Task: structure prediction
Amino acid sequence: MLNFNQRQILETIEMIKIHHLDIRTVTLSLSLRDCITTDSTTTANKIYDKILKYASNLVSYANELEDEYSIPIVNKRIALSPISIIGEANTDCDYVKIAKMIDKAADAVGVDFVGGFSALVDKGFTKGDLKFFESIPEALSSTNKLCSSVNLGTSKAGVNMDAVLKTAEVIKKTAELTKDLDSIGAAKFVCFCNAVTDNPFMAGAFCGVNEAECALNIGVSGPGVVASAIKNLDKTADFGEVSNLIKKMAFKITTTGELIGRKLADKMNIPFGVIDLSLAPTPAIGDSVAEIFKAMGLEQAGASGTTMALAMLNDAVKKGGIMASSYVGGLSGAFIPVSEDSGMIEAVEKGSLTIDKLEAMTSVCSVGLDMIAIPGDTSKYTIAGMIADEMAIGMINKKTTAVRIIPVVGKTVGDTVEFGGLLGYAPIMPVNSFSSEIFVKRGGRVPAPLHSLNN
Result:
């Protein structure tokens, strides 16, 4: 256990009232390997029982710490082993039945979201994986708290282009099945290159097969704190000074997260896992990563220089945060979701921020194209091409990249969509109108880059 500086913690707590500092999520990571059976009903029941056994006190204990330390804990979540693996041995392979039971368990323990309705298909499909992909749209449209993810590529394996196209089809069908709710089902689904196994953030959280029986992972936030500090810095301060200031803020934010995470793990009598250092924005004014760019001197997010600003921010957050924690993991850096960041929304509305610019920024951010609403009539081939581009960035740069886009049925450029809560709202963004069909239908696996041969 680290020796925490009480003065620093008190200073950090003061940031809560004005600059939206919070613990974005406490996420219980839970292995389901012992729930595998040959019958979907039995498997579903075992999963339900295990969630209740380990997570019954998660929300109440988190609320107690929230009151004790006056630090908001915004979300309480659970991350499960990839369900494609857990359900594959079932003779009937009824993944939707399992999904509904997981959602029922999430309601019973009171968490906000549960992740792990996931598959890892970067090198190909098993028979169970194929059935799992077919089940995703119905599972997401018939549940409330379930989140789903798939890993389509890695820097070691390359990118499974057959899975990329299937993923685009999943996104389109999920959006259609939830069109009465502005296609919100697609907001609960994300695809990755180089997915990490200890990510506490949704929709991509899952408990990797290499993870322990259970652990408590935590995700911190605080973009408003960083933006405020930079605004108070002299306008002539150079980038070395800006970077050092971000590192100091990240240290304070992470110290608070480490304290809460370890306290909660102790109360639940489970191991503390990792702290994810990512700056996660919300739709609230003043809680924006885009505001950090403006504080650095850019007129809007998306202006020339934004990618450099994000690269420096990501690096400084990691350097400052890693000194405040024994175990850093997850994604760690800065998120750039459009609908969840008021500054990003403003930049899109003013024409400063486009999907092409967001794609460039994903080469240096924590994840990738995130919470972007696009016209509902966008073809699956265009969506597959967008996914392929993002997978390429992750594969070549040996980093995690992801795509969470929502083709909102019935809406087009100029419209807005309201998702509510942390998901926020978003203007519908235009996509490239030229076809990717022949390219993405080639299929097969894009070979891994040369640097993958590093053994």
